[in-house]
Specification:
Shape: globular
Number of domains: 3
Number of strands: 28
Strand order of the largest sheet: 4-3-5-7-6
CATH class of the largest domain: Alpha Beta
Largest sheet: 5 strands, mixed
Strand content: 15-25%
Radius of gyration: 23 Å
CATH architecture of the largest domain: 3-Layer(aba) Sandwich
CATH superfamily of the largest domain: ANL, N-terminal domain
Helix content: 25-40%
Length: about 500
Amino acid sequence: MHNLPDLVDPLAGRFGAGAPVLSDGAHTLDGAALRQRVAQICAVLLARTAPRAPVAILADNSPEWLAVDLATQQLGLTLVPLPLFFTAAQWMHVLADSGATALFCANPAQGAALGFVGAVACGGALVLCEAADTAAARPPDALAGIQKITFTSGTTSTPKGVCLSLEQQWQVARALRDGVAGLALERHLCLLPFAVLLENIAGPYTALLSGATTICPPLAETGLAGASRFDPLVCLAAIERHRPHSIIVLPQMLQALVAVSAPNDPRLASLRFVAVGGARTPPRLLAAARARGLPVFEGYGLSECASVVALNLPGAAREGSVGKPLAHRPVRIAADGEIEVGGDAAHYLGQPPGRPGDWLATGDLGHLDADGFLHIDGRKKDILITGYGRNVSPEWPEAALLGTGAIGQALVVGDAQPYLAALIVPLAPHIGADQIAAAVARANLDLPDYAQVRRWSLAEPFTPANGQATANGRPRRAVIHQHYAPQIAALYDTTETTA
């Protein structure tokens, strides 16, 4: 059995006897209680039919989720978090691709729906189910050194697994702990799902290293539902109730909080550090947030780099930048302007690990200023990153729209926006707005919420003659975006904050 990486043991001096380590708002675990929970979970994991095989978790935020995370680390097992906002088909793909033979979930029915049986109580809110057939489990050494496989939302409907070692994750947490050490942060409130690497590492891991309490209620109690539905009033009430010193938000969440709060809002007075990441944040939004009294600091990261790569920090912040790269993450700019990240980068499941000295091409364009601050200039390719941090290739929802039989052409937009929208060309002139609306609704049934088209506008055909399509019919995105700029802007001209 491996030793825990010196996180929850009160003897380490980070938490005094009886000091709260994890809390869901109603129940609190101190260091001793957390160690007991980790030991209970370890015992259940070791009693499995395939005790060395990867284990998945499909659960809401809770202290129990983190106890499972720590237990797999103690045993040297691979953990596969399943985002709650994935579709059932995506869950099945992740489980099959990772070779997970056990699943932590809320109840036996949830496990049975995914092909897992024999629920075993773990002494807490979760049960452990095993796959009906564990014969196809990956050999124990196939994932040697991989503690976590985090699956991105995918630029297509098929999520990709990023393989992370224990050291890669805690290296980021240590760098963040050092960066915020002067703020004396004592309470962190988790607003993002633990299955999202940004919260998992920059939130609880950093708090554990700092001796700060992690407050992790169910996501509904902090305002988040799915990947892109957010109630800022619920979130604001949670912040007022729990009085955290730090939170992590996505740009669209920040925008919604700004919309419902007042300048120097007393409900936000406890906050000392608000990290913003997951997608580009408009400078005007950051300025508006600061006017509300929110101490916002924008950062930049990648799953392949175990989340955070660069972050503005107190005393080391620059307007318009995403901060300086963390000490262990060298960054350089390629000749074509693409950001490349050095250090120990992760690799995708099924692919060989990178070699020492390799540089990761991020797909983002940017520059480093004279003082070493990193600035993001845009995306190298067409992938959209929504305001909620989900990566979406526009071809995916476009294909769903084109498959309805009513839509001839479609161009999906939504980079740094709260939801996706589309310019739509009907398949035939007689097809009206009502039929298009019904077609969009049908297409959305096959898409997870973050890839659904929420608003749309009719457009003229994209053709080679008007320069809006190539000879083989591919849309010329930049040309179309420029031509339809007013219509696209109108698709986001809304006061809606819970898209």
